[in-house]
Amino acid sequence: MLVDVSHPTWHTDSDSWVTDSLEIADGVVVARTLFGAEDLCMVVRVLNLTDRPYKLRQDQLLGTALQVEVYDPVHVFWGWEWF
């Protein structure tokens, strides 16, 4: 699902943003999503785990993005950074 992102400012210390998973209705979950600051098209995954249809409302809040620092998983092992 395409999302609209409101930026309070374009000047950030991080190039990455993440939204946490969020249950927006019984059995309907927005998946945790990682975005790059330069992404022109941002998409989140909505999972309907029920057997009933669920209709999203226009302008429905699907989560809040927080700035994060992403580490290369090849260089991070059991909490230690390897350079």
Helix-strand blueprint:
Layout: E1 16-19, E2 22-25, E3 28-30, E4 33-36, E5 46-48, E6 65-68, E7 76-77, E8 80-81
Antiparallel strand pairs: 1-4, 1-6, 2-3, 3-5, 7-8
Account of the protein in words:
With 83 residues, the protein is mainly beta. The chain has one domain (16-81). It contains no helices and 8 strands. The protein has strands at 16-19, 22-25, 28-30, 33-36, 46-48, 65-68, 76-77, 80-81. Strands 4-1-6 form a 3-stranded antiparallel β-sheet, with no helix packed on it. Strands 2-3-5 form a 3-stranded antiparallel β-sheet, with no helix packed on it. A two-stranded antiparallel ribbon has the order 7-8. The radius of gyration is 16 Å and the shape is elongated. The protein starts with 15 loop residues before the first strand and ends with a strand. The mean pLDDT is 77.
Order of helices and strands: EEEEEEEE
Compute the gyration radius: what is it?
A: 16 Å
- Estimated share of beta-strand residues: 25-35%
How many individual domains? 1
Overall mean pLDDT score?
A: 77
Q: What is the oligomeric state here?
A: single chain
What share of residues is helical?
A: under 10%
Number of strands: 8
Q: Runs with pLDDT <50, length 5+?
A: none
Structural class: mainly beta
Short description:
Helix content is 0%, strand content 31%. The protein has strands spanning 16-19, 22-25, 28-30, 33-36, 46-48, 65-68, 76-77, 80-81.
List keywords for this structure.
elongated; 0% helix; 8 strands; mainly beta; three-stranded antiparallel sheet; 83 residues
